[in-house]
Structures are given as C-alpha cells and as structure tokens.
Write a structure and sequence with these properties.
416 residues; alpha/beta; 7-stranded parallel beta sheet; 19 helices; 14 strands; globular
Length: 416
C-alpha cells in the first residue's frame, strides 16, 4: 500500500501545476508551494535551532496558537516554522508575528519530505489536530526528530482503524506522544496499541477563553447595533445565505444583523445584498455613514469576526449548511452567546457536546431556522439560559495548554 500511495502522490504532484487554472484557490495552492523552499532557504540558517508546527488550515492554526506561545516562552531562541496545507490558512496567517517562517507544506512525496526537513532541520515537530502524511512522518522517524500531536481528533472511520490500514497505523509510530481532544480518540488509539496518549482536551477552548479578557471594542459595531438585539452570522457560505435570506427579510427593524462571509468575494456578496429588502451596508462603504440607520451590515474584510461576536445576542455559525465544514462555534460561545448552525456537523465533537447541553441548536431548513431564531429573539429567558450554557461549556473545558506545557517542561529538548 505504501508503494501504491507513493505512486499516486507522485502522479498528483506531476499533475498539480495544471490544476491552478481550475479556481483561484487552486492557483494559490499551486503557486504558493513554489515559494516554500526559497522562503525556508532565506529565513532558516543551518546553525538555527528550529521548531516546526504543521496545521491544515486556519482553524488548526487557532488551536495551535496557545501551544506556539508556550513553546516560544520555553525556547525563546528557537526559530518557529509554521506550515499550512490549505490557502485559507496560509493566506490569512502568512505574516503572523508568532512565526519566523510561514510556508505551504509541499505535497507528501519522499523527495519533498527530505528537502523540507533538510531546510527546516527541526528539533521537534508538532502537528495540530490531524494531517498525517506518511512520507513526512517516515522521514521524521528516520531522523529521530521528536514529534508530537496536539489537540488530536480520531474517528472510527479513519484508515488507521481499518483491517487494511496497517501501513498507515505504522506511520503513527513516529509520534512520541498524542494529546487528544476526547475519550473516543484515546480509546481508538489504545485499541491499536498506542498507550502514549493523554486526554488533554482542545486547545481552542484556551484560545477563545482569553478572548473575553481582551479589548473587544469596535466603535462601528457599537454604533450599528444601537442597543438593539443583534444576530451575528459568522463565516457564512452561500448555503448559509440561502437559509438566512428569508428570515432577514421578514424580521422587524428591532433586530439587527451583522454578516461576516467566510470568503470575501465581491460579486457573491453583492448578489446576496441585492436579495435583501432591508437597509443593507457593506463595511467597506461604512465610513462617514450613520450606521444606526441600517438593519444589515456585511463585513467584507477579514480579521474582525472574533471581536464582532462580542456584540452578538445570537450567533449563527456557518459551514454546516453545506459540506465545507463547520467553522468555530467556540468563538461566540465564549461570550455567552447562543449558537445556531446547519445540519452537517458529524465530524465536530464540540458541536455535538454543546448541542447535547442545549447551548447550540442545529437546523435542517428555513422553517427550523425561523423557529429557533424566533424563540431566541422573543424569549429573553430562554436566550439568556442558552447563552449561559454556551459560556459555561467554554470555561469547563479549558486546560489543554497547561497539560502540554507540563509535559514539555518535564521532557525538555536536549541541551536546553
């Protein structure tokens, strides 16, 4: 199977340049990888001590932030290299001050893995949540580079747990230790012989719990809300827009809406804006405008959503109405805000947990959305109770970062 995998990944690597014409995202995916080795060669010297973090995308980066901060504090003279697989992570965080070099991870060919590790030469590699690339893991093991998994999440349907998944199971031997989010993941790893597992929880809880301590003031949001009830729809996709459209149009002027699309595509945003019969304004057009006069504000920029959630009375989190993947429900929950999402969230245990606790509601269609939002708007007691459940959910699940920190203090890098 390893041989077949290598043939397949080499073929994908060969054909990859042609895919850049399929979409803007693929263009970034392809062209960005051309810069990986030059960036590393210019920013990492042979004499540098380095620590490598890999994450798939933006969500995993948020999980990794508390861990990067711990590592930087414990090893201030090491350079931090961060790699992403997806453009949605790299393009947003390529200039993060937390790292000395940020790159796309080259595809998992043996040649790429060897060249990447030659340039980075990490003393420790830390993978966030998932992304198990066999050739990179094999090369890390052969070089005896310490490798950890943080906020790991495993599911029974993954290849590791199939009778024919032995070649992938063997790649997990690279990991010195697994820090996993939930007991299911721990039991699954135990079932295939791995005992070097700690149930630590999800570092995102630590990340978002600190947000409430920050200055979240946004003057434009305060002016727009104007002391009225505000629904914030964050990280939305067209499937989410289709669900929300009718509810927005039929709502009273006493309810305000702030919409923050996941992708800032002008044509797409304008098409949705034209479907709304409420007074609607784009953030990019809001300067010198009396924001309180508008019912809907569309945030056509990035980097504001986390603070905007602090102005929400109700939050709708996008991604689960379609198949793109649910976005971060913890960001609004930390502010004690009730959360509403779409129906496709089977791979998101935190959403299942919060739903079970009645701090989150998942809807299948427009009618269900109308029902739960109407109840949350009209029943202040229900809204307050649901939000309190969400806030308590965050507070009761922090601590993953401290578990990792204690492990790292106990198992220090050689000579440091």
């Amino acid at each position: 199977m390893q041989v077949l995998y290598n043939i397949t990944i080499e073929l994908v690597n060969f054909l990859l340049p042609a895919t850049k014409f399929l979409s803007e995202k693929m263009k970034l995916f392809v062209n960005g990888r051309k810069e990986t080795f030059p960036i590393l060669a210019s920013k990492v010297n042979k004499q540098d001590h380095t620590i490598w973090f890999h994450m798939a995308s933006l969500g995993e980066f948020e999980q990794g932030v508390p861990i990067i901060e711990v590592v930087k504090k414990q090893y201030p003279h090491h350079k931090i290299v961060v790699s992403f697989f997806s453009p949605s992570g790299y393009e947003v965080k390529k200039h993060t001050p937390l790292a000395d070099a940020v790159v796309y991870l080259p595809l998992d060919t043996r040649k790429n893995a060897m060249k990447f590790l030659n340039l980075v030469h990490p003393e420790i590699a830390i993978f966030i949540k998932y992304e198990f690339w066999p050739n990179y893991l094999k090369e890390l093991k052969e070089r005896k580079i310490r490798t950890l998994l943080v906020s790991g999440g495993f599911r029974k349907d993954q290849l590791f747990f199939k009778p024919y998944g032995g070649w992938m199971r063997s790649s997990l031997n690279t990991f010195e230790h697994f820090f996993v989010q939930n007991s299911t993941s721990k039991k699954l790893l135990n079932s295939i012989g791995f005992q070097n597992v700690t149930l630590s929880g999800d570092t995102r809880f630590d990340r978002v719990s600190h947000q409430i301590e920050q200055n979240n003031t946004l003057e434009f949001a305060e002016e727009f809300k104007n002391n009225k009830l505000c629904i914030v729809a964050g990280s939305t996709w067209p499937e989410d827009d289709s669900l929300l459209e009718d509810f927005i149009n039929q709502s009273t002027d006493e309810v305000k809406f702030i919409l923050a699309p996941h992708q800032i595509k002008t044509d797409q945003i304008n098409r949705f804006k034209e479907k709304l019969n409420k007074k609607t304004l784009l953030y990019s057009e809001s300067k010198n405008t009396k924001l309180a006069d508008y019912n809907v504000l569309i945030i056509d920029t990035i980097g504001l959503l986390t603070k905007i959630y602090s102005y929400a009375d109700i939050a709708y989190v996008g991604g689960a109405a379609g198949t793109t993947g649910l976005h971060n429900i913890l960001e609004p929950a930390t502010f004690g805000v009730p959360v509403v999402i779409g129906k496709n969230f089977d791979k998101f245990p935190e959403a299942k947990q919060l739903q079970h606790l009645a701090g989150l509601y998942a809807i299948e269609d427009k009618e269900a959305l109308n029902e739960i939002l109407t109840k949350l708007i009209n029943d202040a007691g229900f809204r307050k109770k649901t939000g309190m459940i969400a806030g308590h959910f965050i507070n009761s699940n922090t601590g993953a970062t401290q578990i990792f920190r204690r492990y790292l203090e106990k198992n220090k890098l050689n000579n440091f």
